[in-house]
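Example record used in the benchmark description.
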Amino acid sequence: MRNTIENNTTSLLTSLTLASVMIPASAALAADPNPGWETSANAGVTVTRGNSKTLLFTAGLLSQKKWDMNEVRLGLDGAYGKNDDVKNTEFGRVFGQYNRLFNERLYGYVRGELSHDAIADIEYRVTLSPGLGYYLIKDDRQSLSFEVGPGFITEKLGNHDKNNYFTLRIAERYELKLNDKTRIWQSAELLPQVDDLNNWILNTELGLETQLTTKLSFFTKIQDTYDREPVPGRKQNDLKLISGIAYKF
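Model output (structure tokens):
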């Protein structure tokens, strides 16, 4: 009888010991230190008929991942539109940025972007830039970062020859979660040509996204590009208002 009680006690202690080891291990797996990609796709369509005949289609994809001391952000967006069967919108952009954090706030980055805008007569514009960035604010609710570094642009504008020149890149990005379902963001990027400061490009964006379900959300954003020296016959400023529905994977 005594041996039976001792054996049962030993078995119980062994089970409790194994459970105490397995529970923290399961919790550690649940709080995955290397989360996967966060990806969302969006699209929007505007059609009018009657006094005006217009069609506007927009689409985009954004994917990002943060793990250890690394951050990656990839995206593409574009739009195509007609007014009375005359094309009045055709632009596309794809970009990628990799950040390597040196500590909680300081990081080095490499960024690349390819854009096209038929209405502004930009066949293509490629921007490459490495540099340093710093988070002035970084917590669960909001973030504010500044970046600076050298850059290089190669572009083909209209019927002109290809242009190549070096730039300085100065940028900032701010994001704020208003609540569990709504966030706003704002970004600005200045690209002055280093040997001709009269030639510079300013890209800005302001956006809002509201979650409708666990997968669907509504978004609207304003994108503005100011080109100090545009293609002759084109305006310096291009403003775009984009709205639609986004689906998160």
